[in-house]
Write a structure and sequence with these properties.
The structure is a homodimer.
Chain A (H helix, E strand, L loop, with lengths): L1 H23 L3 H12 L7 H16 L4 E13 L4 E8 L2 E4 L2 E3 L11 E8 L2 H7 L1 H4 L3 E4 L10 H6 L2 H13 L4 E5 L27 E4 L1 H13 L4 E6 L2 E15 L4 E11 L9 H20 L6 E8 L7 H12 L3 E7 L7 E7 L2 H8 L2 H4 L6 E4 L15 E7 L4 H4 L12 H20 L3
Chain lengths: ~450, ~450
């Protein structure tokens, strides 16, 4: 069919234009330089998060989209406080400082800190096997490392993160006084990695403080425990949960020329942890998502479907932005045919993990040759992203950009997740790869 | 056929063991830590190059291979000298220093340096169009940047490196007094990148000094020239070519159990430039090649064919090691059925570029599913490596490991090519990917 052939012939030149625009005339790198270096870490509820909202809105306004708006959402506010500190007392009066940071959502220690013996475990099973008498009054040290022989480092993360998320709850139920968790990091270094945790349904007075220790710190503590199982660990932190505050998802859209009621979302999360400046998690995803719309304008591509960028608030410790966006989408009967999230770092894009029907997955996989010149090969069945996952329907397409994952957990949730860890070309290639997928989704009727 | 089925069934578990050994019990990272941090930059003919030869031999000896030997080869010796310095004189008495480094093989300036007007060109065509009268007595500034929209950065490098390699020769023929070349770097930064250059058949007295300028320096010089085309550039360097000296290729082998006369080579180059410590170029390739043999021993795999590791000397400025190895291989009627080089950095492996017959290429491409779990997808026709290319015959297989190339030219031949730019997992994955390909080449009869 002639029309279809003409349409086919537009695909390769359009993808080429998309990549050229990203690499020769891109905006991701200067955008991220601003977000990372001029604003910085932007935990939900913080002043920086509010500055990021204002910056996001201003930049989207400047793109000349059809609509830009803020979507109000109440978010949790947790603050790290003014100190966090730990040491290992190897013998009375002899201590070694170790790098720790409070886990997000943790309570404070008493003002004078806690000093207690340590019980080291690999997992909850081992903890439970110990029995209450061996745990009571002690600090539980979860030291299960990420599994280094898993090629996808996110699988290694999934296999460990229960220690961080539920470690305090499990330990508190057995009478522990605190929890120290080995950082989710495949590398041995001195950065403690924070992240979300939950006390489940524990009452306020049952809760115990939880901190992450750097991987080097964890190795040291473990060796010291082997020498002296009675050593004491000292932890002091004064983080705090405060009442919820007002924040916003930042949204912009190019209204579809032919099917305006069919919505395609690209997005990432605007909040970050507070230790670094959140360049990889998820500043990269934010500027790449914004870049998708900028590129479409730049190459004069008018999407047939509505293309919406969503800068989600509060992915890290609550996912309230995602919940609010989904709630309103459902209330307004919006039809999300496609959503794509970038929240796995600004590294060289390898492809996509895709959550849809088998049939649609096969169709998308048939597009692989279009991506071959850009060295993008992965089109696998899998999860999409924490912010867009709630948009799932029986037959829409959700996808996550899958960058190279080897370095991601070197930086994830740690003080070294900063702009210098970003490579400009890798960031730009990610944006172009997202824009190409959006173009193909818009071009073909799935 | 039953045997073949059994054989097939061994493939996946063997690949898994290879990757596990590299990632859980690898030697690449500590080896490279030594080569980079305890030895450092190792330009051919230097004391460090000799130390690297001794280290390589010792480490191969310790692996318990069937044979380890040094293969003598005479190599060129060029030294950077005691200073290299440049500035832009924007008006009489006002200067701005810019980062430069001598190109490898360049002659010195006079002791007092050279100060001359600058003519900026993009390529040799533009230079020739200017005519001798506009070039005579001036410094030629080659400022053609690497093309940022090429996805494979090696293609961008190929498109620029003529400026560095032959720029001095071309400019000297037109009466220029010196040459400054924009660094082969896709990033804007302050590192000048050295590399090899040639004067062709110019006589000693016709030669002119050649230096690289950092990309930021090149941008500055170009802007300054736009403001004042008469500005003067000052260059001073006292590098020197010395007589050839004795050096060595370092070679080790596991003799084939069934077809000992069929040789498979893995290798990289042991020499590096002198500015950094050569971690990516090509310390990574060296330790990955050594690791291939170590892994085979570790997993108790006895190759049917002879597996040889060659640590080539003098790839950077002469390729004398490669020439010597090839000369002796031919003289001894050795049958090299396969050779694999790693000389493109220690980044995440993406696959291989393969130089062989169409039929064998197709067979190798049919192995792609074995590499899928390791996220290795590229099996493309292309060049192999500078050291192994001379081993080509009508029907053998030459291949180059192809790591992700986005960051490579940030470091290539510059002072920041150091151990901290290496990611342990990426390095290990490269070694495992090489070992897997060697295993498959040995397992199947091509």
């Amino acid at each position: 069919m002639a029309t279809s052939l003409v349409a086919q012939e537009q695909i390769e030149p359009t993808l080429k234009k998309i990549y050229q625009t990203a690499l020769l005339d891109g905006q991701t790198y200067p955008w991220l330089a601003h977000l990372s270096n001029q604003i910085g870490g932007r935990l939900s509820g913080s002043l920086n998060a509010q500055r990021a909202v204002e910056w996001g809105k201003e930049e989207l306004d400047a793109l000349g989209l059809d609509k830009v708006w803020l979507q109000p959402v109440m978010v949790p506010k947790w603050i790290r406080g003014t100190f966090e500190y730990a040491n290992i007392e190897t013998s009375p009066g002899n201590t070694i400082n170790v790098p720790v940071c409070a886990l997000g959502g943790s309570i404070s220690t008493p003002l004078t800190g806690i000093r207690a013996e340590v019980v080291e475990v690999q997992d909850f099973e081992e903890l439970k096997a110990l029995g209450e008498e061996q745990v009571k009054g002690k600090i539980v040290f979860y030291n299960r490392p990420m599994q280094a022989d898993l090629i996808n480092t996110f699988s290694a993360y999934s296999g460990c993160v229960d220690q961080r998320f539920s470690g305090a709850e499990e330990a508190a139920r057995m009478g522990a006084v605190g929890v120290v968790v080995r950082s989710m990091n495949l590398r041995l270094d001195d950065y403690p990695h924070t992240g979300s945790m939950s006390y489940g349904d524990l009452s306020l007075r049952e809760r115990i403080p939880a901190a992450a220790i750097s991987t080097n710190g964890a190795e040291l503590l473990s060796s010291m425990l082997a020498l002296n199982p009675k050593l004491k660990f000292y932890l002091k932190q004064n983080c705090k949960n405060l009442p919820d505050v007002q924040s916003y998802n930042v949204i912009g859209e190019i209204t579809g020329s032919t099917y305006p009621e069919e919505i395609m979302v690209v997005g990432g999360h605007l909040d970050s942890w507070d230790l670094g400046d959140g360049s990889h998690d998820d500043g990269a995803g934010i500027v790449q998502s914004m870049e998708v719309l900028r590129i479409m304008k730049k190459i004069n591509y008018c999407p047939k479907r509505t293309l919406r960028v969503v800068l989600y608030m509060n992915e890290e410790n609550g996912q309230r932005g995602a919940a609010k966006y989904t709630e309103l989408a459902q209330k307004n009967n919006e039809n999300h045919v496609f959503a794509l999230e970038s929240d796995a770092g600004g590294f060289t894009p390898r492809g996509f993990s895709i959550d849809t029907t088998e049939e649609k997955l096969k169709t998308i996989q048939s597009w692989a040759p279009y991506f071959e010149p850009y060295l993008v090969h992965l089109f696998v069945k899998g999860g999409s992203g924490a912010d867009i996952a709630p948009l799932k329907t029986a037959d829409n397409v959700l996808a996550g950009l899958r960058p190279d994952s080897q370095r991601y957990f070197d930086f994830h949730h740690a003080a070294n997740d900063t702009f210098d860890a970003i490579n400009k070309r890798e960031l730009e290639l990610g944006a172009a790869t997202m824009a190409s997928m959006v173009f193909l989704m818009d071009h073909f009727k799935l």
